[in-house]
Amino acid sequence: MTRPRLVLAKPGLDGHDRGIKVIAMALREAGAEVIYLGLRVTPAQIAAAAVAEDADAAGISVLSGAHLPIAEQVLAALRAAGAATPLAVGGTIPARDAEALRRLGVAAVFPVGTALPDAVTGMLALADPEGA
Amino acid sequence: MAALPGRDEQSVTTDSGIPVAPVYTAADVAGGPQALQERLGLPGQPPFTRGPYASMYRGQLWTMRQFAGFGSPEETNARFRFLLGRGQTALSVAFDLPTQLGYDSGHDMARGEVGRVGVAIDTADDMTDLFAGLPLDKLSVNFTINATAPVILATFLVAAERQGVRPDQLTGTLQNDILKEFLARKAYVFPPEPSMRLTADVVEYASDRLPRFNPISVTGYHAREAGCTAVQELGLTMASAIAYCAELTGRGLAFDRFAPRLSFHFATTLDLFEEVAKLRAARRLWYRIATERFGAADPASARLRFFSGNSGTTMTAQQPLNNVIRSAIQCLGAVLGGAQSIHVMGYDEAFELPSEEAVTLSLRTQQIIALETGVTRTADPLAGSFFVEHLTDQIEAAASDVLRQIEDAGGAVRALEQGVPQRWITEAAYRAEQRLASGECPKVGVNVHVTGEGSRGIELFQPDPGIEERQAERTRRRLAARDRGACAQAVRRLERDTAGGRNVMPALIGAARAGATVGEMSDVFRQAFGEFREPSPW
What we know:
The structure holds 2 protein chains of 2 kinds. Chain A is an alpha/beta fold. In chain A, about 45% of the residues lie in helices and about 20% in strands.
């Protein structure tokens, strides 16, 4: 298969970008094409990038606790842009919220404590559900 | 005895990569006893390696200052009272992200973030409510605020004024270290140059009006949390301190006018001896910088005082009660390193803001170390240890190298604009995560002694989802009640002083007093300075 294309971003106001940068580096090492949009990216910018980059999956990281409202806005923006891009959410996500995120339509949740190889495998599986 | 897993004799190092020998002797302490004595001095005496004060904790315990804030000013006020009621000795305010970035609670950019990671402050009225019934002439207050530090200081000065407290009575610390926001913490708003101006405006204003208040806390903590090593943390902190001092002396302010009120903030993580050595090396390095570069004449200008926060990144989601032990060891490291104030992380902070139970235990950790262990009985108890003195020398030398690399890149501001230290941090974070994944770096409950029990058994804090609407409504009411003409006039003065290069503090205080919001005051700076976008991390 061609290299999976992944859009990663930090929406909201949270600046804790250690995790998402580490994951971006690991995904690149695993052969993915990673487009990292940076900090304080709006839901509309994420959706626009997912369409423009023809992304196979998108990932956002939120460590401020605002993951539920932010994920809801990003999913709405993706729908509004007509993108079917599966969305993964990582961050300080308590178990009670992981289920709520999945109900909203989030395709994968990587809560704090997720091992790096598991996050990489999970993102690549989202990008290529058939499993190349 | 079998070697430790994953380590052979040759590769044993500290967390920051300094080689560690199986045993140390007097031969490992450079220059012999006389030279060592010169590098150490006595506690309270140059070069302050052994501590900033002669009597250290016999004279006064460190300040126990748990970082706290969430929801509305009233909710945070209640958490402050809860902590003070359990023996905390000072306050430390956590602000929500909209406040840190200069957005009012009703702003579009604030959606989902109001009252989440700290208290929402929109006006001087909010600040007044935050400290209702808490006497500001008696309580020392720390503010973790940076991009909007001058704005928040203005609202605090107005709140104090309403309590009848004079500026010269106020004690506490404003973090006000914008360089480490670009470096690691990432709550910057304006570009580096005008940000440096705002930081210096605050320090300059405070040097005149707030003689007991620390107007800046030069911070290595966040770079460390973002991934760098103890050595890099120390080198980067000193590079920032030099940049601020150069900015201030460049305005014609004498070093000894402001330097005695500079404070510092370091992380203390789990490599106990390396951390103690780092803190001792920090004092000696600052002494050298203050005297040799800036010609400090007042010994207080060269006497480094610091706050220690233990490391959130050492806390694990797996087996969270293990974090209680990690916190205790880190707190002990800060005490053995001679900290002036300490925050201990809650065991549940890998998931949420700390619960009342968790913050109580953090405070009890400090109190047990202070009152039951006897480590406070004598100053700098590890002095003279062959290993600790060797490490202190090594860290000082290695951190000086880091500092030189930053200076070769043009100093702290230029290096940041080019993304140089940011790349060091990202690369170090990636290596640390790989060592965790490979098991090379053992972490109990994560890659060794794993049980898969998750977070079962701890009660998490439950944030209030209604805060955003309540806070926005409160601010709408306040906007309706203010004298619009007077407020507009005060904001126009702020615009003029900003454009005219005058110190912004007097105009900010006038605007805060007239009811201008944090968002309105920050917008004046946004208009004048623009906003910063980070260069690509790769």
